[in-house]
Amino acid sequence: MAIARPRGANDFLPSDTAKWRAVEALLRKMCVEYGFGEIRTPIFEETELFARGVGENTDIVQKEMYTFQDQGGRSLTLRPEFTASVCRAYIENKLYGQPQPQKLYCMGPLFRYERPQAGRFRQFHQFNIEIIGVISPLADAEIISFVWDLYRRLGIQGLVLRLNSVGCPACRAVYRAALQDYLRPSLGELCPTCQHRFARNPMRILDCKSDTCRGISAASPRIIDYLCAECAQHFAAVKQNLEICGIPYSLDSSMVRGLDYYTKTVFEICAEGIGAQSAICGGGRYDGLIEMIGGAPTPAVGVALGMERIFVALAAQNDDIKPQTGIGVFIAADFSVDEAVRQAFAMAYDLRKSGVSTAMDYERKSLKAQLKTANRLQAAYTVILGEAETDRGMALVKDMISGEQIEMTVEQARQHLSQR
Ligand code: HAM
Question: How do residues 94-143 score in pLDDT, each as one tens digit?
Fold first, then answer.
């Protein structure tokens, strides 16, 4: 029996990867414009990093990690997110000793054992940016403006930016107690998961999808009414900075995010019409994380966007990335003439060396069939080396857009095409 790929993982074929590369190229270009440098961290880390960083009580750590023991008996985990790894690398490589803030980006595969569905996979890809070492609310707004600008450039419509503040440990403790007081009389009616959450992570109850839990939490106290003066001031400044950029937001006090490291600003951007998994990115400020994993107290803010969800959103809106896929030159040779094949192969090598994408056939196919291939590959030019041309040391060069055909010497053809 043939072996299938693992559930929740995908193969990306050339028609897909061309689109991925077009988006990745745009992201890298934007990173230059916004001043982010690339960081690459290992795909696996000590399990402890995520347990401490993402939080013992989160769904990610409790249920979704791909954790294994290596031959040396160490517990390792395939990264379920980037932020903890980037912070570990920031500490380990003493990036705090370099000019601050450190503006870092990364992209690549991540792994979560989730129930696969449209837009949700077990191996998925994120693009992630972090600004580390700055407390200013300008950084929060810069992070949000980056992703907003990206989706605008990609033409994704119907975006909603949901914004909230989860405060700092001091004001959150007061809020947690108030929330528990409010929920306690209805504890028995909450879903089993939320009953568990009540003691350990009551704010996650606000995010529950069950109708009963939603009904109960609808009138619960709101965190933004409990923010301390500093957190309230920070939140007001973030909102003001978004207004300066003309980025609309909708305040959502029930949004708490699924990772425990957040402080102050949290946000998600959802796209219309892409189904249940509508969050195309999520992020926020995490001023306590670096200290939590062994560094000095360091403020930071970041966002990660789901790469797959960009393509889901574009497909749902009947839009698509149109990468440049056509090749430069296709060389069609008469395979019954050895000299024609030799000249074709030499010309292909010369053109490729001078940077022109060039293709030719390998087998004895008719010239007509080869011209069909040239069309399929969307070649800008086709060179025909038939018996009649080869005998005279000539080549027929066809401009596939205008249809114009010019006969020239093989050397002239090579020069002409390498200058295009
Ligand atoms: P997150 O909300 O867990 O945040 O993930 C960010 C985005 O990754 C989601 O909005 C979604 O687009 C995509 N995503 C998450 N899980 C899956 C999945 N199973 N399949 C497909 N796409 C998925 C974080 O990971 C934080 N580290 C973000 C961050 C960076 N916060 C601060 N800096």
Answer: 999 999 999 999 999 999 999 999 999 999 999 999 999 999 999 999 99
What is the SS3 assignment for 64-107? Answer: HCCEEECCCCCEEEECCCCHHHHHHHHHHCCHHHCCCCEEEEEE
φ, ψ of residue 294 in degrees (nearest 5):
105, 5
Domain 329-419, CATH among 2.60.120.560, 3.10.100.10, 3.40.50.800, 3.90.1150.10: 3.40.50.800
Domain boundary assignment for the chain: 14-168+228-316, 329-419
Query: What are the φ and ψ backbone dihedral angles of 31, each rounded to 5 degrees?
Result: -65, -35
| Contact residues of ligand 1, CB 6 A cut-off | 81-83, 112, 114, 119-121, 124, 126, 128, 130, 258-259, 279-284, 286, 302-306, 308-309
**209-250 residue pLDDT tens:** 889 999 999 999 999 999 999 999 999 999 999 999 999 999
For residue 361, the one-letter residue type is D
CA of 256 to the centre of ligand 1 (A): 14
Q: pTM value?
A: 0.89
64 Cα: distance to centroid of ligand 1 (angstroms): 13
What percent of the chain is modeled with pLDDT above 70?
Answer: 100
Given ligand 1 and candidates 281, 285, 301, which is best to mutate, with the most ligand atoms within 8 Å of its CB?
281
| pLDDT (0 to 100) of residue 273 | 82
5-26 per-position pLDDT tens digit: 999 999 999 989 999 999 999 9
Give residue 244 CA to ligand 1 midpoint distance, Å: 27
CATH superfamily placement of domain 14-168+228-316: Bira Bifunctional Protein; Domain 2 (3.30.930.10)
Contact 97, 296 (CB under 8 A): no
Q: Which atom of ligand 1 is nearest to the CA of 126?
A: 8
Distance (Å) from CA 243 to ligand 1 centroid: 25
Which residue puts its alpha carbon closest to atom 8 of ligand 1?
Answer: 306
